[in-house]
Amino acid sequence: MDLELSGKVALVTGASRGIGLAIAQALAAEGAKLCIAARGQDALEKAAETVGAAGGEVLAVPADVSDDGSVARLVEAARERFGRIDILVSNASALSVGGGREDWDRSLSVDLMGAVRLVEAVLPAMRERGEGSILLVSSVSAIEASPMEDYGYTSAKAALNAYAKKLAVNEARNGIRANALLPGSVEFPGGGWEAMRTQNPPVYEMVRSSIPFGRLGKPEEIADAAAWLVSRRAGWVTGAALGVDGGQGKGIR
């Protein structure tokens, strides 16, 4: 299926590894031009090489989505290079899954307000053009209460779902779609679940066994869904909270 993404410009944050990198690769493979962002410059440059190998024109901009000025510079750099931003994928996460006040602060500042900063920066131009696609990467944790103490993380992700729905309702008249993507537990080299598998096998096994397919997900499986969701092929999908979790989420909604 042609996703009709050729020539589209996508901004993807948290794109130096894992799900964000896989999404950038998937969009590049469909012909999109990419601006990718993350805090670590070395990892980001390596990611740019990987995305470029997928066939896409790519600009790498180190950025901290918890900082207003950094977000403004990121969006401006993308516009200077490509002229516009058609697609925003807000994927940056503090991954602060403890139960302390500092975890709340990091999760709200990065996961939630980082998305707000990015959306507010791209919306005016999208409204002027009368089109745009916004994808907020949430989590299955936003709709499934686990016994972990990741209160701030889950609350921030749940807020992203609500934010996507409100954006969808309010921006449809401007030709802009907004959706949330809810990945389940995903394992990749250097990621948290790979470390959990060796450092805390009981927790890893508890999560693995909760997934009907008997394994954790792969970044590419999340990316394929993301690429479709931001594309014109999903043009009648807005305000959705799409779970891509191998059945990890058990609720009937």
From TrEMBL:
Keyword Oxidoreductase found: yes
Recorded hits in PROSITE patterns, A to Z, give: ADH_SHORT
Key word Transcription regulation present in the record? no
Family recorded in the similarity comment: Belongs to the short-chain dehydrogenases/reductases (SDR) family.
Name by which UniProt lists this protein: Ketoreductase domain-containing protein
What keywords sit in the KW lines? Aromatic hydrocarbons catabolism, NAD, Oxidoreductase
Domain Ketoreductase: start-end pairs: 8-196
Q: Which GO terms describe its molecular function?
A: oxidoreductase activity
Q: Which Pfam families match?
A: adh_short_C2
Organism from which the protein derives: Erythrobacter litoralis
Task: Name the domain of life this protein comes from.
Answer: Bacteria
